[in-house]
Design a protein that fits this description.
Number of strands: 0
Largest sheet: none
Structural class: mainly alpha
Distance between the termini: 43 Å
Helix content: over 70%
Oligomer: single chain
Order of helices and strands: HHHHHH
Length: 133
């Protein structure tokens, strides 16, 4: 079975999705990553959706994946603010900490200073870019 036309249709919808996510505040790189994941998932599906159903399906997937990405970034930001900011380092003893957060802090403490600073700057950069949109 040839899927060239189907793949082209998915590709066109993927370009629309990228523009849609960017217009709604996503960073271009993040939008492209989300759309690429959706593109691969749709092509790997056993079932071929009709043209009237593929577009809404892909838009729904794009919204959900971007929301998941956004929530994950918020979680990272909370962890950074709690454990890696100088002002909050003194208050760590009085905070009740989730076991997953303890593992994250332990892992971050084992990183060399250079890697920890790189991680912090990447998360901070992503937050600043997201905040400006």
């Amino acid at each position: 079975m040839r899927l060239d036309g189907y793949e082209e249709q998915i590709k066109d919808i993927s370009l629309e999705l990228t523009r849609y996510l960017v217009q709604h505040g996503a960073n271009l790189e993040v939008a492209e990553d989300v759309v690429q994941n959706i593109f691969v998932k749709v092509l790997e599906m056993d079932l071929i959706l009709p043209p009237t159903e593929i577009r809404p399906y892909m838009y729904q997937m794009a919204k959900r994946q971007y929301i998941d990405y956004y929530r994950r970034q918020q979680r990272f930001q909370v962890i950074l603010e709690k454990y890696l900011q100088p002002a909050t380092n003194q208050a760590n003893d009085t905070l009740q900490v989730d076991p997953q957060e303890k593992k994250m802090v332990k892992a971050l403490k084992h990183l060399p200073d250079k890697d920890r600073q790189l991680f912090c700057s990447k998360v901070h950069r992503a937050t600043v870019i997201r905040g400006n949109c």
